[in-house]
Amino acid sequence: MEIRTGYADYNYTIHVDYGILKDCIFRYTASYNSVHFLVDQNVHALYKDGLLSFVQNPIILEGGEASKSFDAFKHITETLLERGIQRNHLVVVIGGGATGDAGGFAAATVLRGVDYIQVPTTLLAHDSSIGGKTAINSTHGKNLIGVFHRPKAVIYDLTFLETLPQHELLSGFGEVFKHALLKDEKTVKRLMDATSNGVSLDMMKPFIISGIETKMHYVTSDEKESGIRKYLNLGHTLGHAIEYKYKMPHGMAVVLGLYFMMFASNEEADRNIFDLDLFRQYFELHGYPLEQLGTIDEAEMMTLMGKDKKNQSTDATGFVLMHDFGQCYFTEIDSSQLKKYISQLKESL
Amino acid sequence: MEIRTGYADYNYTIHVDYGILKDCIFRYTASYNSVHFLVDQNVHALYKDGLLSFVQNPIILEGGEASKSFDAFKHITETLLERGIQRNHLVVVIGGGATGDAGGFAAATVLRGVDYIQVPTTLLAHDSSIGGKTAINSTHGKNLIGVFHRPKAVIYDLTFLETLPQHELLSGFGEVFKHALLKDEKTVKRLMDATSNGVSLDMMKPFIISGIETKMHYVTSDEKESGIRKYLNLGHTLGHAIEYKYKMPHGMAVVLGLYFMMFASNEEADRNIFDLDLFRQYFELHGYPLEQLGTIDEAEMMTLMGKDKKNQSTDATGFVLMHDFGQCYFTEIDSSQLKKYISQLKESL
Ligand SMILES: NC(=O)c1ccc[n+]([C@@H]2O[C@H](COP(=O)([O-])OP(=O)(O)OC[C@H]3O[C@@H](n4cnc5c(N)ncnc54)[C@H](O)[C@@H]3O)[C@@H](O)[C@H]2O)c1
Ligand SMILES: NC(=O)c1ccc[n+]([C@@H]2O[C@H](COP(=O)([O-])OP(=O)(O)OC[C@H]3O[C@@H](n4cnc5c(N)ncnc54)[C@H](O)[C@@H]3O)[C@@H](O)[C@H]2O)c1
């Protein structure tokens, strides 16, 4: 399966399937004088004798957020330069969303930008590898330093997902679910039916592809997030605050944020757009810790949400809510109203 | 004097004159929610009670290359974030080329890019502040990490130049001279006449403006240096090697590189495009250490030039030479030929 981006220029292809990595990579590397591989250390350990046996002399990045520090940034760029990287070389970044963000930022800045390919290896990275955002973390928050730098291709070999720990699968599934909500009610229903006995990989491919297409729709019409790209933040405003406070995997926190989004959307519209009982049951069945929402502190959450880089006002908090499945809108909820919504949600649990 | 860039989009104005800073800045800041000033420490010390007395609570950067380290990059971005920078804030970078490069890179990456204004304070920065290149240094070479990020404006208040030490003036003048060569013979003659009694600021304004216009011509037609932007490297290939080896100010080394360029252009064309005696006398009169060229080691220079990030071949070295004043071409000179040119030049001195 190949999906082509729809920008005005600098388009690229997203290849999604099982067992495509090696052939696909070689199609691209042929036109470069040399290739540098940046590989997540856990992925390297799991696949160095298998899927990645063709990878020579990789630069190994610590898996996860550790690769998104300033020190790691220095290490990656200096190592690329030590190895003599030139403008006609290619960088291939293999790993989860964190590796993709860090490796992408290094590729974007070394020699003022060289070509790179994203090879996402987690379910969540179906999301993070699309859209050209690269980043490292600040002590003041995640992803606060970075640039936009489109890859030359994304090669998403779903074989990698087979070794994902269950909590990483659930975390990635949070974004798959979000993309279904952003699409339409039919997609949400089909996804819930397909996963009624639990989240497993077998049935995931069509939903991953649909998720990628949905994300691409938003990012191609608004790369720099001045307009509708914001809608991709569905569930993320409270989600980020919960992720930060409880050190919960990103996509799991997003599911909790989506549940609050459903609650608030119903309240603002004064009608039941979302059947809260149904979704609550579904999320709990799959192991998302919705009960955590019952323990959050209103004031603390509101402070954390105020720090979100997308929030520019202090008295009100910007939220993406829904008029209906597939129909987002952006609104500012003022502090007292927001506090009320959070309290009501807590009571309802 | 205002010069407008000629890109397809994201154009900006370069304001050049005496005493324009404050009024000009306020014209821009009005449309931002807040402004953050990054100021070179030497410039701050000299002007905090004068030209910069309106600047509140600046972030002070070490002057010179010290501000282009990874540590300084971390310090600048983290300080901006600590001060609560938001996407609708403006960064104003005040200082020489080094401060401009470092501050520009911070503005380009914090929150994935915020608007910024360059306020160059050295003669050399008439060059470095135009073109949108930002950078920090690697242990493997200067300017190896960075991005392209166009400013919203360049405000070049020539009053700052009055406190420049003589060697910095001479260094900046090297690039003024290069821009005259890139323009035409008439401009070179006028510049040489105007400076026949030494380089001073009084007569510099028209040549600075002409230099900016010349640089802009090259960068707007080729922002990412795949074609004619390369011509701006006139004199820089050997210049960079000399700068590195002898720790000479950039523009002074460039003058030595320009002299070699003239020599090699004559040789390659087999005619006297440039009157070498005339230029040698002129450069020596102004204090450029041409005698250093007599002591360079061929092999060492060739190794250093091979490391230049613009050189992608190993057996030959890419050079910008001239068919005539204002008429550049790019050529690769193979190793044995290059060695011969350097030896001949040494003997001629
Ligand atoms: N750029 C964007 O647009 C964007 C969007 C969303 C999230 N993100 C970023 O993505 C990151 C989260 O991504 P993630 O969830 O993939 O996290 P991750 O990269 O930290 O990976 C999670 C863990 O799984 C391991 N892993 C990766 N692939 C594996 C595999 N195939 N088998 C077994 N283990 C594997 C990793 O080593 C790591 O320990 C965050 O840093 C977030 O900020 C970026
Ligand atoms: N981005 C580009 O396109 C580009 C082009 C050329 C050069 N550069 C970079 O520019 C830098 C060189 O620029 P530079 O020569 O301006 O060096 P600089 O910024 O290091 O300044 C030189 C010295 O002069 C001091 N200074 C600055 N303004 C002064 C003033 N008005 N009065 C007195 N002292 C003052 C500084 O504190 C410093 O000590 C290098 O880092 C080079 O890589 C960038």
Automatic annotation (TrEMBL), chains A, B:
Cellular component GO terms held in the UniProt record: cytoplasm
Localization in the cell: Cytoplasm
Catalytic activity entry: 7-phospho-2-dehydro-3-deoxy-D-arabino-heptonate = 3-dehydroquinate + phosphate
Keyword Endoplasmic reticulum carried by entry: no
Principal location: cytoplasm
Required co-factors: NAD(+); Co(2+)
EC class name: lyase
Family matches, as Pfam families: DHQ_synthase, DHQS_C
GO biological process, one term: chorismate biosynthetic process
Boundaries of every 3-dehydroquinate synthase N-terminal domain copy: 59-169
Pathway assignment: Metabolic intermediate biosynthesis; chorismate biosynthesis; chorismate from D-erythrose 4-phosphate and phosphoenolpyruvate: step 2/7
EC number(s) stated in the UniProt entry for this protein: 4.2.3.4
TM helices/strands, residue ranges: none
Keyword vocabulary terms for this entry: Amino-acid biosynthesis, Aromatic amino acid biosynthesis, Cobalt, Cytoplasm, Lyase, Metal-binding, NAD, Nucleotide-binding, Zinc
GO molecular function, a single term: nucleotide binding
Domain 3-dehydroquinate synthase C-terminal: start-end pairs: 172-311
Origin superkingdom: Bacteria
Keyword Zinc part of the UniProt annotation: yes
Family per similarity comment: Belongs to the sugar phosphate cyclases superfamily. Dehydroquinate synthase family.
Name of the protein described by the UniProt record: 3-dehydroquinate synthase
Source organism of this protein record: Salinicoccus cyprini
